[in-house]
Structure of Glycerate kinase:
Amino acid sequence: MVQILIAPDSFKGTFSALQIALLIESCIPNGEVHKTLLQPLADGGEGTLEILAAAYNAKTVSAQVTGPFGNQVEAKYAVSDSLALLEMAEASGLCHAKNGILKPEIATTYGTGELITKVAHEGFQKIILGLGGSATVDGGAGALQALGAVLTNKQGKTISFGNQGLGDLEHAHFENAISNLTKSCLILATDVTNPLLGENGAVYVYGKQKGVREEDLPAFESRMRRFAECVERAQQESFRNKPGSGAAGGLAFGLMAIGGEVASGFQLIAEHVRLEEKIQYADLVITGEGKFDRSSLCGKVTGSVIQLCAKYQKPCYVICGTAETVSPEMLAPDVKIVPLFSHQNIGAADLKTETANRLKSIIATLMKAAFKS
């Protein structure tokens, strides 16, 4: 019996991981395969909450919290026994930017801190927070404030929300924030390894996608540096260069300062859905993402799936919206990169329809090639 495992990441802005998995499955011609197994994946970013909730059979609930731009938003999270599953984008993500208007100077993680505080007070002993899709560059200052940290300026007044407030920070006290998490283990799920500061840090690498203009990057970086110095002075420990501290606009840095621990989002999901075992028993694996490039091979979902396929000598097709040229020696012989488009010049609405059309013909061709007699 031919076994096909369909295990994609999301196609950001177009299809969730589950949606694209279902679409791929629907394009496999009848009779070509006896069994397909769907396993949507994520790496701590978009889709992490949905996939982990399914893996843990957790109940999805919601709460009203402060959005990234100060308005109230409804944020989903999931709970199961002593475990709470959160996704920072639900409270502080780019998805809350109306008409695509971003405000990085004032964008805050306060709502994420409200979610963490809520589940900690409700007695959940383990909290997994997916870091990804953030609209913020505040170093986690807002989340720390919601958790009870006192961040003040020279006059002893609370600093304002967002990156703009970091430049005024003079004193930081974390006793209340740490106390609120004494009975909970906070795990920060991400596969971003960037430090907080510098050319590879939160501002210079990810600032533009949150709306920071090129000419404003130095000012944002300067304020983030001041924040880091104040936090580390208060905690008498350095966090800025720890891998992943730059994740989610530096939110990881702020939460590390009160005991948060970074963990690979992909590994968390892969272990709980028994991905390696599923690949081991598959005859063919289909994975994918919106854009495949060299960074895909550096710890992201598709690259990690490719590595597992190589370990068990399984053929792997990578379906992607677009693909950059990757040196053949970077891929195992049984890996085939299959881009659906050579360029991105159609609107999002057309993109969904055209993706489905192209998938149908491409999948049919791939199945014939994979299982020709």
Remarks:
- Residues 348-370 form the longest helix (23 residues).
